[in-house]
Amino acid sequence: MKKLIMFVLLSFVSILANAGSNQATEAKFKPEEVATFAKAVEKYAANKGARAFIISRVGQPKSKLPKGIDFTHTAIAVYSEITLDDGKKVKGYAIHNLYQDAKDSNKSSLVTDYPVDFFWGVHELKAGIVIPTPELQQKIIEVIASAKNKVLHNPKYSLIANPFNNKYQNCTEYTLNIINAAIYQTTDMKQLKANTKAYFEPQRVHVSRFKLSLGSIFADGVTTKDHKGKIKTTSFGSIARYLSKYQLMSSKHIFKA
Amino acid sequence: MKALSYITYITVLLTSFSTFAEPASTHSGKASKHSALALSHGAAGSAQVASAVVAVPLIIVGSTALSAGIASVELGEGLSKVATSKVNKVKKVQQVELEITEITITVDRSPTDAMKTNQ
To answer: What is B3-40 written as a DSSP string?
Structure first.
């Protein structure tokens, strides 16, 4: 029986290690380290002329992440005019996120934050950056500037959401929805999911169905109800491969402190 | 009875794991983040920290300035149609370096904290 308990516990740890769409609180690095890193990421993207790019962070040790998943949270950074609390207007990147709710893990909210907020609680000072082509950047900005991204949000959260349907959603699937809404110039979810199924190759989650079923039972924010067969979800890597395959990516970079 | 104890034990442990991955924050957490940043910047005597009230996406509004090597951007609010028509005319967008503020920007403080500051 003790062995069974250990097995269940270890299984669970590996399932939840993939989780990462939370607004981080406690910094693992010194505030100045996070601030310096966040500003360096901004300047890197600005130097590349990126007006919109896909940004990812690492919230867990690599050893805890399932094979093929290198980042735990993904969002879209948009070059913006930011009004500060003293009324001053400055230029920088605002990050458009889907975050798992703090009080209800089965739900998510759309939150705009800034690079230092984004990297605040990371495990490693490392950022995944995918810069789409300028034409796609422009269309992504239009989706966000016109608030059409809100239509693409499903607040029912699952860590391993299936990108081929809209039953549940995680941060990366929401990011993919924005990208596809920009590409196809539509917010019609049926159309977007049909196109996703036709062209997007999601990331296989290398965790057994048994373990994931346990996760469904015991943990909030994890369900397999939207899946049939092998568990596949959206990841930073699968988005990068998708954009690259269809010549919609200008560059990809792993930025480290 | 022993089995029931084990199951209860497992359930309690697993439930507690469900939020360990990246703890979610509340608005009060953001306030402490702002303070920590302000203190660290103050100690280092470096760039200032500020809270953001609102961010408006900037969009490209033409190809002429871009080809001259200077980023031409305009507020995205309400300009979607204009931007679309302009973007269609852009054949090749050159890479240009964008201006980035040296200020460390963070999300706005909690209503409680903001009220304390304003008093």
So the answer is: HHHHHHHHHHHHHHHTT-SS----HHHHHHHHHHHHHH
Q: What residues of chain B lie within 8 A of the CB of A135, using their CB?
A: 87, 90, 93
Task: Say if residues A156 and A105 touch (Cβ distance below 8 Å).
Answer: no
Measured on CA atoms in the order A18, A22, A27, A29, is the torsion positive or negative? Answer: positive
Q: What is the pLDDT of residues A81-119, one digit of tens each?
A: 999 988 999 999 999 999 999 889 999 999 999 999 999
ipTM given for this complex: 0.80
Put simply, the answer to whether A94 touches B60 (Cβ < 8 Å) is no
Q: Which residue from B minimizes the CA distance to A38? A: B104
Yes or no: say if B17 and A105 are a contact pair by the CB < 8 Å rule: no
- Chain position carrying tokens 């995918």: A130
Q: What is the pLDDT of residues A125-162, one digit of tens each?
A: 999 999 999 999 999 999 999 999 999 999 999 999 99
- Do A126 and A65 form a contact (C-beta atoms < 8 A)? no
- Which residues in chain A have their CB less than 8 angstroms from residue B107's CB? 111-114, 117
Q: Is B112 helix (H, G, I), strand (E, B) or coil?
A: helix
Going by DSSP bridges, is the β-strand pair B49-60/B104-106 parallel, antiparallel, or unpaired? parallel
Cβ under 8 Å to B: A residues 150-189: none
What is the residue whose two structure tokens read 């703890």?
Answer: B23
State which amino acid sits at residue B56: V
Cβ atoms within 10 Å, residue A13: 14
Measured distance CA(A118)–CA(A37) in Å, rounded: 11
Interface mutation target, options B5, B18, B107, chain A, most CBs of A under 10 Å? B18
Element (DSSP H or E) covering residue A74: strand A73-84
Half-sphere exposure of B81 (CA within 13 A, CB side): 1
Contact between A97 and A18 (Cβ < 8 Å) = no
Nearest to B25 among A24, A30, A83 (CB): A24
Residue B27 burial by CB count (10 A; 0-12/13-18/19+): exposed, middle or buried?
A: middle
Q: What is the DSSP letter of A63?
A: G
Beta bridge partners of residue B75, listed in sequence order: B58
